[in-house]
Every structure is written in C-alpha cells, then in structure tokens.
Backbone:
C-alpha cells in the first residue's frame, strides 16, 4: 500500500528469550533509524491558533 | 437470455404458488437502458416482471442480510458465493433461502458502453450471437459482447452457482485460462515510491461517499468502523491518509470473504478501481491458505481460524 | 485407613513432577510442604532449552 | 518427618534480588546450573527466572564462610538480608502423606575412558549441550564448541550412554527420553547454525514412542539429520585440532571412519546414591535398576502406605509422563487424606470494597527507589515531583522498598486517609509484583483492578544505567502514561460461579474406572457412561502383564469396587446425546436403555479408549493361525492347545503403525510381543520364536523383558519399511519370508502361530469432540491442553482426558493418567466456586454483527451466540466470563469493533499512547 518496507516487523520471541528480544529490538530500531523519518502517510498536525 | 428470463419467471411463480417462499428477489427492467433494478415479488402473478440479461450485475445477496422469512433469490456465481458467506456468518439461514441459480454468462459494463458512444443511449440489446447493439439518438453501434464485460466478469472463474436449489439452466463452462492477478503482480513489483504514487493517483478522486461499502454484501456491521467515534479510527475529512485508511481497512475486512462480485467498483461514482485491494488479499488467501471465499458452507474463512501449520514466513 | 489423618502432604523434590503434584494437592484443599535441596525450584526442566514436539521454550 | 533446612545465609524475607551482592562478590566458581560451562559467584541465584528469586550463598566457596574474610555482600546489601550466622535447622513436620518427586541424575560418563569425556572439551553430555543451545546459557545460545569457540560444522550424538549397558556400567534399563532429546537437539542445532550443519545420531533402536514423537523423528530425517544404527566404541581425538574421529559400521557392514567437530553423549537417567539411601531410610522398595518399585495397577504407590512417587524416580520417563504421574500421586495422596481436606488450609479475611464508580479519579502515585536499584540511576524525587503535576494525581510518595511489608501497610493506610481511588506504582515488573500490590489495594478496600504499574526498573534503570538523565526522563514518561491510563480504569467485577460437585466419566475401561474411583474416593459423586454392556474396555482382552498379574483378576476386583461404590453410578449401554453448559455447570443428555436423561455435572473426564487395528496386510483373515496380539492373548487365556503344540511362532511388529498413513508408534506392541514371546517360551521352551521388528521399543525398565526374551532364545530379526516381511501359504504350511539384516538374504520361517502386533486406533469420537469443544489430532486422538504441561486436560476448562483416547499406552500409564485427570478435575471441584477474572472480553451487542468470527477463533470457546428466541439481543454473540482468558484475540478480530477487553479498553490504551507522544 505504499508504506515503506522495513517499517513493519514481526517476530516470535518467547518470554525467556531476552537476548533475542534485545537483538530484535536493536535491529528494528536500527532499520527504522536508517530509513529516517516517515515520509508517507503523514497527517498535518492541526494548527491551533 | 430469453430462456433464462422465462425459466426464472416460471420458477418464481411456482415457488410463490406452492408457498415455498414468501418472496422472490430478482431483477426487473429499469426505466433507463442498462439500469435493471432489483425487485421483490410477493405474488405469483407479478412473476412476469422478472427478467434476466447482461445488466443484472447487482449482487442480490445484499438484500438477504438478516432475512427471517422464506426467500427465493436469483443468484449468479458470485451472488451464490456471497449467499454462502452469509450463511457462514449467520446472516441467513440456509433453510430459509431458495437459490434460483443462474449459470452466469458475464455481465456487461454500462460505463464501458457509455464511454464508447457519443450521445444518450436509448436502447441496448444483446443478440444470441454474442453482440451488443446500442442505439441512441441518431446512432447505432454494435459491440462484441466480450469487449463490453465488467472487469471482474472478464476474469471470473466461478460463473456457476456454488449452491443452487432451482437451476435456471445447465452449467456454463468455467473460464480456466484467465490470469486473475496480472495487475496485482505489477503492483507487487513496484517500488514503495511507485506504489505510493499509484495509490495516490487511484484515491485522488475519492469523495468518501461510502457507496462501495454500502453496495458490498460483506459490509453489514451495525456500526461501521468509519462511523465510530470512540475511538475514532478514521478521520472524517478528505485527508489522503483517512481516505487510504478507509479503503485499506475496508479491504482487510473483506479478506478471505470477498468473491470479487464487483459491487464496489460498480457503485463508485468516480470510478475508483478498488478491486485491486480486495484481489491482492484474495490472491494472498489463495496462495497462503489455498482458499477461495464462499465455496463451502462448512468452512470458515482462513483468517477466522488458527492452524499450527499456517504459513509464517514473514515472522522473523 | 485411620479417620484422623493429617490434611498435609510433604512433597520431596521441586522439579516438574514435584511442582505439579504440590499444586494439585494445594488446590485440592491440602496443606503442602514442598522440599527442594537446591535454592530454587524448577529441576532439570528449567535447564532445558526447548522441548519437543512443539519446540516450546522449556522455561 | 524431620527435614533439614540448609542455611541460605540470605534472609528470604529481606532479599529483594537487587543483585548488588552478586556485583561485588569476588569469588568466581563454576556455575552448576550451566553444567559448569560458565562461571558464577559464590552468592547467586540459579537463573534469572528462578523461584524464589532470592540470593543464596554457597557455603563451600564463600570466602567469608570459609575463612571469615571478605563479607562484601553483607556491607553492601541495602536491606541487611545477609546473615552469615544462619545455621542448619531441623524442622519436624507432621504430615498425612508424602509424595516423592526427587527426580534423577544424568549419568556421569567420565568413567568411560573410550569416550574421553573427561579429557576432550568437545565431548559433552546432552545436558551440557542443552545449556549451549539455551539463550540463557553460557554462550547466550550461540552454538560454539568449548575448545576453541568455533562453530562446529559436524556434530555427532551417541545414544545409550549409561543406558542399556551392562558391560561398562550397571544400567541395563532404557532411559526412555534420550532418543527424543537427541533428535530435538539435532533439529534445534540446525535451527541455530543453518541447514548445512551436519548432525548424525548413532543409535541402537530409535525409541520415539510418545505422542507426536514419530512425526518429529520423520521430520528430522527430512531436515537432513542422519540416523546411523551403530554403537560407536570410542571417540578418538584428531591431533590437537579439537576434532574427533568415530569408527562405525554402516547398515551394509562397511566399516567407516568419520571426523566430527563436536560429540554429544546422550546420557541416561539414573537414581543417585543419596536417593537410594533415602529410600532405605523411608523403608520403600526399589526395582533392580534402583527405581521406585510400584504395581502396574497402583503405579504411584510405593511399598509403604501413604508414601507416593512420581517423576523419574518411579522409572525413567519424560516430562509429560512425569506430569501425569505427578497428578496421579497428588490424587493418590488426596484419596488417602480425603477426610482431612481443608483442615489445615487457611482462608484470608475479606475487606469490604469501597464503591468508587462515578467518583472523580484521585490517583495516588508511589515511586519506588528499590534501594539503589532504581534510585541509583533514576532521580526518584524528581520523578515524584513530576508526578505531582499530572492531572488527577492527588498524592505522591517515594518509597525505599515498596514491596516490603511495612511499606505495604503504610500504602494501605495512605489509600484510606487520602481517599485515593486509583493507584499507580512505579517500580519493578508487574509480572512478579502486580499481585502483591493488588493485595494492598484489596486490604485498603479498593477493587484490585484500580491499579496500574509503571516498570521503571527492569525496563528503565537497569537498561539505561549509563545514562541517568535519559532514564529519569523515561521514568517520567512511563509514569505519565500509567497515570493517563489509571484515570480511565474502572473497577472490574469477578463473578463467582458455583461448581456442580458431580463428575461425569465417559468410558468404563480401566482408565474410566480409575478416574471414577479416584473422584469418588475424594468424596465426589461420579457417573460413568459406558456404551457397551460391561465395564472393562480393552483390558478385558489382555491376558497377563509383564509383572505376572492376570489382568482379568485385577479387572474383576476393580469393577467390583466400582459397582460397590455408593458414590459411583454406572450407566451401561449409554451414550451422550448432547452437552450444554461450561466448566462447573455442564448439562449432559445421556441416551440409552430406551430413554434420555439429563445429568448436571461440574467436570467431565473423557476416557473413551481405543481399539485394535484389524490388519489388511500379511494375509490376516485368510488363515486361523494368523492372529492379532489380542487374539493371541485370548488363546493364552483359554489355554488353547494350539499354543502348546506349536513348534514355531512369529511376531511381526508395527502392523499398521509407523506407516505413512498412520505415522505414529502404538507404544505398547513391542513390550506386548516380547512379553508374549516369553510366555510362549515358558509354555513350550522348544518352540522357535521369532520377533520381526523395525526398532525394539521396550522403553524404561521394560528393557529387562527384552533381555530376558533374548536369553530365553527368542530370535529378533529386523526389517525396514521398504522390505517388509511377506507371508505366503505353501499347501498347509504358513511361511514368513524376511530379509535378514545381518546376512542381507531372504530367510523363510515356517510358523504355526503368526502374531501381527497391530496398531492401536483411536475411536475418532468426533461427536464427543464437538459436544465438549475439544480438538482431535490428525490421527484421531484427542489433543490435550499442552503436550508437556497439560497432558491430562483440555484447553476447554473442566474437561479432562486419559487413557487410549489420548494416545496408545500400557495399563499402568493409563491408570496414572486416569488418576491425574481426576486430580486435575478435583482441583476444580474442591474450589466449589470459580471466580472469573475481571480482565475479560465483553461484547457490545448493539454493535455485534453476529458474523461468528470470535466464536470460530476463540481457543477457549468463550464466545457463543445468544439464542434466537432470547428477548434481548437475540442471536448476538456474548462472552462467558468463566471461560474467557482475556487474551484479546476476539477483540482484534472483530470487524464491527463490538468487543472490548475490560482493563485494556481502547480509550485506556489510546490515552497511554497519546500521552507517550508528548515525549516528543
């Protein structure tokens, strides 16, 4: 639908896989940081006077 | 077509006479060409109002939602699949419905025809040799019927009714050599920027009239998500994000349920081709779960059930 | 069977079997003493990585 | 009973598991939890999820306890929990019964010099290998070998190390679990290191006789795990490469050598000497293999009354079987103590609840310092100050330790004095502490759901300890989010449902009768429904058990007990015609004997059994000398002269089992045939007896039978699926042809009795499955709640499972499971009332479109449709709070947005998200 790839991630992580959780969280954060701010589907904030 | 009409009238009359149904839903001639209207017949003597031709595209399952009385309904392939979905989703009791099954020879697209001629059309006739003759103020034009079909009918692979109590004719051959997803694959192959541009263009005309939703036999929620205010899932304005949210979410709500009857596109006053959304999901359901909507009253759509072997390749 | 039995049970071992047994007994209305020689319960199962056939995490 | 309480040297009531002591403890020692593969300190918790999460000092390695020096932990401990003066204490407990679940010890292979376990770092035991695979293990789940931390490319598993071995160790029994765990380790190792990892398992017989095990085995083969049938003699190091050479003989007799980079020894299960001593002290008898001796009809009773056993001490077994035993032991102890039920348990006092509905929110925020755990990083006073500025916050306090008993009392008092009606605690994790704080709310007269927690320790101060400013800012964000949700939370009601105290057992076989007897002995009225005209089920077709017991005698006794039991009603020739209701309140219609009858009951046990496969192969039915296993039993029971006169007998194994169309092992047939072969040899020592097998699966101590059969001269010939034996008739002669696996040539055996060890089939109780909303698997057996932890119950509350309906199993295991099912059922019945959780889904009927997605999707069958005749909202879906687990699946799936999850309402979650957004 035109959402940039890399902005949606899925992963199975069990409650005991803390290291995996940390790793996936890192990976997702880095992937999203690399993409930079979202360019699509931005809604202009309503301007309040 | 004449035989279909005669047979439908005959069946409807008999069902009403025998008291098997309280009413029959079918089509009657509209006041304008190519504008047949759904109609409800309650008395045997009114059965002769019923007709059948290439302008009976409206999905009559839409008129069955929540029916409590005995209803006879004229149904082509897609209508019958929506009736099945209705039965699965408790919108209809199988015992309350008599399906008058029409092996469908595809519907013609009034917009294609109107666009191909200049001037007001006064009469459209379909000939037995597969031609469509269009007459209007000072012109007459003949088309190959195959060229005037609705987009969804051209690629239809289930023309015969899935459930049928009163067959109108012998089944027609199904199309086996059509590619239902050529355009979907093209969109899949686009880059995200191209795809965004594609959808920007596609939704540019949307006026949020919700005709697509209202025409869809699957959209029967008492309160649609777009009308909810707590929480407000979708803004009410013409913001492009809200328009997209509406269309994408509506398509997702139809995932695994849509029969590609084409009601949404037919209803759209500005000609948005939103079937690419529902067909993308249809394609995924077929490829991932081997599922086609409305083919059996015993099975719920794949997204309504969990199986341990559901594909999960997208999960890392 | 004597009728004046004591309504408590000593469960020796805090592995999967001991824990299950203790929980069942406690939930059935008996006071349970669960004995474990190491400082925490869980037994060998807690040392396993995953368990077949579902490859669920053992923890 | 006298028990010794070993000193922990840490006061459990004070220790808050902050870890400050661990940080500073200077003593590093091998970590026993990680099989010595990693280091830990002398003060330690075994693993991060340990229960209780309290530190302990190892007196053997602690510098202070050994030399009276150091004491760093004592100086550092913020709560003063360290107490070096703790002494061993001897407590005397008066108990009515004892359950022994002391487990096993993995076999120590250091004594096997040919395996070089003691010398080669890359030879490890399977338990050590588990730790290597584990994310919480010494390598955080990276599959590397110990010598050089390289990722091995080739791993070998050697089976039966310390099992089925009388030459090098005295453990003749099979450990039952090693085949499966080796396959599992190989599969997981491949998942870790990729498909090109070469995994080879060297085995004697592949014993995958448990439920779904055979499929797992077949899948492992498909995934490329190599299975090599050979017992490897020795492990030889290859220079100083760290690699090892194995010599083995392939199926076709070729001697091969292969180099592996890692070798895993599949060590067996054995009873450690201290347990043997304990058994001696308790005066209970053991088997030859030092496992606890039990009777097949009383599988969890030791030789001493009131002392029960479960788990691997009863015999080598896997987790599901241990869990089944555990339930059985609990039930047996419960039966023994039934008159004293609820005499020693305690009931908490109830504080009346204040009505806060329609009150303006008055939020109290308690920010916890957790000693230095939070306050060392996060500026707690600043967070508290900030909390004061938030809307609806009326009171803020910071506590040193919110979880300590005195703070709890103060909190309850504050809630009362300040008239607080919502409470936020910013502290550690709700996973461990939410229930505690909810208790405080209850004590203060507040509904326990008027509580929200912000995790500013585990998710903040611990992970951002190097960035205090950021951590403080994040703590403020978390508190703001929690407060914004708290303002919107509502008190939730937990409805209480009465549990009907009667039980229904479906099936009157050994399993059903045992389940019923356990239920009745614990005081519950029980109904048995049996479709045939007698009790006994399949066991009626069995002759003797390996223990020598005549099944008929024991069965008769059991049936007589059932019939004499006043609390048990037996309904013969009866089936179920319909089931309504749910846990605690079932209404079942019984049909039979010319009428229908409605029975109300609180729980149901499904014990519908199985049946024998009637073979279509091996010329079954064409000759009276070709029998199924049960038909042979019948002949043995009737002392048929054909037995005595037979000169030769052949058994063919795996008839209808482990075939593509029935890919499961029937578990009992190997033992059954081996046992019957012994019976035949005993009846006629001159008879030539052959057993044609694929793998001999005489697991556990059944291995003794296999040995005995071989000693008596029974000949075992192996075949494989591609070369199955052929049966032909030559005139009057019945001939079986099999390809001898040693010689590789066809061998003709003339036989007078041909026994086909045919599969156990499920009864495919589809109707029953629909009635109770419980699933059947592909093979037609019922699917339990959890393969490991819930083998005797269903995911549907109040419905339990045992016997062959679950999976093929011998009588002792069926009885254990029957009693386990009863035990699980009793935990429900004993409660008399069930309280639903407050956090359940609720349907707004005016928005419900009746599409049925929730009804189809819910794993717990909580949503149903109202009757179409109902006056209000006919036909709409509704959720039974007694069945709802609050998982939220229906909420997410509802297109109409009609379902919401109480306690996690959209507005509450949105409030949290929107207030997070302010973080910028």
Residues:
């Amino acid at each position: 639908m035109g959402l940039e790839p890399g902005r949606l991630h899925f992963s199975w992580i069990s409650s005991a896989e803390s290291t995996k959780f940390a790793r996936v969280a890192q990976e997702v954060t880095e992937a999203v940081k690399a993409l930079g701010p979202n360019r699509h589907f931005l809604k202009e904030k309503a301007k309040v006077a | 077509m004449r035989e279909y009409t005669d047979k439908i009238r005959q069946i409807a009359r008999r069902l009403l006479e025998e008291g098997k149904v309280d009413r029959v839903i079918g089509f009657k001639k509209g006041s304008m060409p190519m504008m047949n209207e759904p109609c409800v017949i309650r008395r045997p003597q009114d059965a002769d109002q019923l007709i059948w031709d290439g302008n009976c595209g409206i999905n009559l399952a839409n008129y069955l939602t929540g029916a409590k009385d005995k209803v006879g309904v004229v149904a082509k392939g897609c209508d019958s699949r929506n009736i099945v979905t209705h039965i699965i989703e408790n919108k209809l009791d199988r015992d309350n419905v008599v399906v008058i099954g029409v092996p469908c020879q595809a519907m013609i697209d009034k917009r294609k025809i109107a666009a191909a001629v200049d001037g007001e059309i006064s009469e459209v006739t379909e000939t037995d040799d597969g031609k469509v003759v269009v007459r209007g103020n000072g012109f007459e034009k003949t088309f190959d019927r195959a060229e005037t079909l609705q987009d969804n009918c051209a690629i239809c692979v289930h023309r015969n009714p899935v459930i049928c109590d009163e067959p109108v004719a012998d089944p027609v051959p199904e199309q086996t050599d059509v590619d239902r997803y050529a355009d979907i694959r093209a969109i899949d192959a686009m880059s995200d920027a191209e795809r965004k541009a594609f959808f920007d263009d596609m939704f540019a005309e949307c006026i949020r009239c919700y005709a697509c939703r209202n025409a869809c036999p699957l959209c029967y929620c008492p309160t649609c998500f777009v009308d909810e205010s707590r929480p407000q899932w979708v803004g009410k304005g013409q913001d492009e994000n809200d328009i997209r949210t509406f269309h994408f979410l509506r398509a997702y709500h139809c995932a695994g349920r849509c029969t590609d009857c084409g009601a949404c596109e037919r209803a759209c006053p500005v000609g948005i081709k939103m079937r690419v959304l529902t067909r993308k999901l249809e394609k995924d359901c077929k490829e991932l779960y081997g599922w086609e909507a409305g083919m059996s009253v015993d099975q719920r759509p794949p997204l309504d059930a969990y199986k341990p072997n559901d594909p999960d390749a997208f999960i890392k | 069977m004597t009728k004046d039995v004591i309504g408590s049970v000593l469960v020796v071992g805090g592995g999967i079997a001991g824990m299950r047994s203790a929980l069942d007994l406690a939930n059935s209305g008996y006071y349970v003493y669960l004995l474990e020689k190491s400082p925490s319960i869980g037994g060998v199962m807690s040392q396993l990585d995953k368990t077949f056939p579902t490859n669920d995490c053992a923890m | 009973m006298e028990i010794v309480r070993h000193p922990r040297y840490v006061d459990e009531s004070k220790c808050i598991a902050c870890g400050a002591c661990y940080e500073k403890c200077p003593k590093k020692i091998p970590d026993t939890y990680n099989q010595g593969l990693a280091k830990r300190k002398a003060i330690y918790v075994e693993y991060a999820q340990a229960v209780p999460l309290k530190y302990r000092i190892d007196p053997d390695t602690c510098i202070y306890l050994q030399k009276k020096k150091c004491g760093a932990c004592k100086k550092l401990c913020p709560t003063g929990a360290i107490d070096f003066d703790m002494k061993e204490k001897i407590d005397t407990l008066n108990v009515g019964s004892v359950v022994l679940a002391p487990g096993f010890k993995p076999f120590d292979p250091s004594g096997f010099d040919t395996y070089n376990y003691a010398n080669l770092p890359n030879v490890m035991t399977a338990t050590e290998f588990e730790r290597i695979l584990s994310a919480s293990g010494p390598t955080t789940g990276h599959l590397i070998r110990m010598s050089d931390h390289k990722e091995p490319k080739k791993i070998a598993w050697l089976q039966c190390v310390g099992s089925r071995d009388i030459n090098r160790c005295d453990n003749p029994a099979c450990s039952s679990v090693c085949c499966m765990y080796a396959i599992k380790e190989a599969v997981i190792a491949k998942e870790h290191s990729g498909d090109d990892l070469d995994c080879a398992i060297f085995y004697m017989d592949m014993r995958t006789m448990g439920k779904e095990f055979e499929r797992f085995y077949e899948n492992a083969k498909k995934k490329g795990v190599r299975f090599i049938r050979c017992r490897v003699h020795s492990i030889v190091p290859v220079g100083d490469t760290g690699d090892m050479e194995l010599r083995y003989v392939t199926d076709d007799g070729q001697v091969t050598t292969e180099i592996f980079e890692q070798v895993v020894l599949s060590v067996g299960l054995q009873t450690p000497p201290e347990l043997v001593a304990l058994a001696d002290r308790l005066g209970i008898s053991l088997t030859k293999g030092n496992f606890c001796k039990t009777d097949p009809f009383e599988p969890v009773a030791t030789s001493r009354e009131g002392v029960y056993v479960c788990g691997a001490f009863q015999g080598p077994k896997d987790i599901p079987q241990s869990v089944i035993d555990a339930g059985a032991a609990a039930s047996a102890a419960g039966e023994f103590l039934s008159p004293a039920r609820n005499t020693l348990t305690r009931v908490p006092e109830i504080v009346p609840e204040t009505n806060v509905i329609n009150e303006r929110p008055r939020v109290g925020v308690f920010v916890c310092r957790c000693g230095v755990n939070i306050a060392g990083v996060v500026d707690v006073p600043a967070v508290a100050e900030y909390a004061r500025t938030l809307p609806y916050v009326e009171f803020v306090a910071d506590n040193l330790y919110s979880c300590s008993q005195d703070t709890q009392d103060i909190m309850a008092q504050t809630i009362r004095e300040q008239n607080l009606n919502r409470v936020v605690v910013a502290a550690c994790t709700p996973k461990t502490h939410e229930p505690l704080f909810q208790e405080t709310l209850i004590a203060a007269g507040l509904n326990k759901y008027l509580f929200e927690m912000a995790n500013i320790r585990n998710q903040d101060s611990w992970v951002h300890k190097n960035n205090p400013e950021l951590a403080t800012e994040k703590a403020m964000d978390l508190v703001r989010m929690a407060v914004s949700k708290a303002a919107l939370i509502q008190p939730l009601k937990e409805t209480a449902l009465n549990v009907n105290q009667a039980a229904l057992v479906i099936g009157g076989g050994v399993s059903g009768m045992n389940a019923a007897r356990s239920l009745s002995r614990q005081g519950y009225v029980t109904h048995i429904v049996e479709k045939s005209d007698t009790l006994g089920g399949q066991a009626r077709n069995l002759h003797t058990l390996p223990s020598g017991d005549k099944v008929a005698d024991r069965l008769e006794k059991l049936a007589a007990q059932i019939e004499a039991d006043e609390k048990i009603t037996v309904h013969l020739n009866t089936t179920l015609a319909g089931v309504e209701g749910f846990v605690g309140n079932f209404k079942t219609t019984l049909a039979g004997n010319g009428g229908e009858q409605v029975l109300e009951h609180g729980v149901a046990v499904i014990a519908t059994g199985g049946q024998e496969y009637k073979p279509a192969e091996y010329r079954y039915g064409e000759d009276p000398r070709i029998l199924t296993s049960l038909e042979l039993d019948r002949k043995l029971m009737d002392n048929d002269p054909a037995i005595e006169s037979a000169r030769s007998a052949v058994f063919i194994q795996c008839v209808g089992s482990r075939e593509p169309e029935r890919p499961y092992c029937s578990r009992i047939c190997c033992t059954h045939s081996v046992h019957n072969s012994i019976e035949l040899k005993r009846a006629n020592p001159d008879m030539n007896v052959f057993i044609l097998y694929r793998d001999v699966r005489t697991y556990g101590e059944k291995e003794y039978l296999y040995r005995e059969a071989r000693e008596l001269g029974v000949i075992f010939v192996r075949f494989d699926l591609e070369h199955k034996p052929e049966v032909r008739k030559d005139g009057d002669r019945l001939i079986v042809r099999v390809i001898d696996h040693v010689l590789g040539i066809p061998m003709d055996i003339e036989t007078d009795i041909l026994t086909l060890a045919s599969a156990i089939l499920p009864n495919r109780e589809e109707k029953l499955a629909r009635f109770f909303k419980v699933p059947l698997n592909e093979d037609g057996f019922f699917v339990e709640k959890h393969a490991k932890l819930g083998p005797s119950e269903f995911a549907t509350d109040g419905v339990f499972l045992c016997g062959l309906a679950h999976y093929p199993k011998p009588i002792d295991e069926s009885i254990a499971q029957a009693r386990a099912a009863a035990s699980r059922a009793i935990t429900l019945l004993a409660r008399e009332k069930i309280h639903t959780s407050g956090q359940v889904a609720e349907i707004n009927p005016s928005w419900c479109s009746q599409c049925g997605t929730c009804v189809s999707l819910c794993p717990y069958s909580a949503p149903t449709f109202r009757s179409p005749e109902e006056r209000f909202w006919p036909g709409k879906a509704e959720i039974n709070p007694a069945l709802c687990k609050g998982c939220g699946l229906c909420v997410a799936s509802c297109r109409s947005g009609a379902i919401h999850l109480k306690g996690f309402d959209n507005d509450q979650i949105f409030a949290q998200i929107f207030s997070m957004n302010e973080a910028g």
Summary: The mean pLDDT of chain C is 83. The CA atoms of residues 22 and 36 of chain C lie 12 Å apart. Residues 6-38 of chain C form one domain.
